[in-house]
Amino acid sequence: METTTTTTSTSKALMFWLAVTCIVTMASAVVPLRSAEATQDLGGCIMSFVSVEGCVEAIHDAVTHKVYDGLKHECCTAITQLGDNCWPLLFPGRPAVPLFLKAVCKLIGGDAAKVEKVAAPPY
């Protein structure tokens, strides 16, 4: 049962990134991107997260479901080191996402257990 849940979560996250990729591709066909120097390749942006095991799923869960337990140190490192020009490609129209993820990573320092204390309601 746990394998099915993990597979389903991974599938949902990959579908999410596929949708983002499609949107960016369609948008760049309508509005040409700036010079190659000004914007990092979408594939390179995505690979920053795909290369860290579980990071794509962790970002998806954090942004979509406010579940932070997947944000490990390596994933937070990838988040904080990602260039500012990648965020609009990965999350078009959602400028708060990089600020949110960087803030969460700074608060937890790669230790998702700390988020429970931060995210818990005061009542």
From TrEMBL:
Secretion signal span: 1-29
Keywords attached to this entry: Signal
Keyword Nucleotidyltransferase set for record: no
Keyword Aminoacyl-tRNA synthetase applies: no
Domain Prolamin-like: 45-93
Transmembrane segments: none
Superkingdom: Eukaryota
Designated name of the protein: Prolamin-like domain-containing protein
